[in-house]
Amino acid sequence: YPTWKRTLARRARESQVKRFCKAQAIQRRLEEIEVTFRELEQQGIKLEKLLRDENESPADQQTQWTNQLLYLVQKKNNLMTEESDLMIAVQELKLEDQQCQLDQKLRSYMNKEETLKTPEDEKAEQEILKQLVEVVNKRNILIEMQEEKRLSEL
């Protein structure tokens, strides 16, 4: 087993572990966001009830509650934006993983001697290459979406 093949296999495993760790971190953050959403929702419900039921309250108090409610809405919008970014990151990780798998399959076909390749091998190699191009194009679309989103936020 040549050294370069071992190196490629090791790098592939390392990148797979990195993607897995990143996916776990994203999943944890998505769960935290979900919990925070529920908490904000409960706080918002309490504030809305206070605003509706306490018509006799001083104007300062109602203004304070309204400001708190607006702050909660802003916080929720920020979390929704972060959640959207994380979902894009999840899609990107899936495509990255798919690309890595296809790349390994393609390498195995390409490393085969031309004289030993069957017509089925050549057909499979072309199909994998086609799939790889599709995955790269999908990743490119995701990156363009992220860039457009970033520019629109500026």
From TrEMBL:
Protein's UniProt name: MICA1 monooxygenase
Family annotation (InterPro entries): bMERB_dom, F-actin_Monoox_Mical
Stretches that traverse the bilayer: none
Record carries keyword Membrane: yes
Organism: Ptilorrhoa leucosticta
Pfam families named among the record's database cross-references: bMERB_dom (PF12130)
PANTHER family, per the entry: [F-ACTIN]-MONOOXYGENASE MICAL1, CALPONIN HOMOLOGY DOMAIN-CONTAINING PROTEIN DDB_G0272472-RELATED
Localization annotation: Membrane
Main location: membrane
Keywords: Coiled coil, Membrane, Monooxygenase, Oxidoreductase
UniProt entry tagged with the keyword Oxidoreductase: yes
Coiled-coil intervals: 23-50
Sequence ranges assigned to domain BMERB in this UniProt record: 13-154
Protein's gene: Mical1
Recorded GO MF terms: monooxygenase activity
